[in-house]
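User: Fold this; tokens only.

Assistant: Input:
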Amino acid sequence: MIVRISGEDQYRLADDLHDQLDRLAGTAHDAVDAGDEDAFVRSLTELLDFVRSNGTLVPDEEIETSDVILPPSDTTLAEAGVEFTGEGLIPD
């Protein structure tokens, strides 16, 4: 699967990591629902670090459609409240 971190890069992530990615995104979503800024910042950082450390950077010259688009690392809790709606960050 191809994961884009907004404002950064795209990463190729093994499909078998989808569930772990979904759990991490769920933790961030729960923090948004709870209005817990500290938990949100921690969970978003963990989510983005997971993608960066487990994914392979997609070269700029490759054109790939992103399966998942994650918010940038400087996303605020208020911004996330708008972005983390519907089915969440990771589509089923």
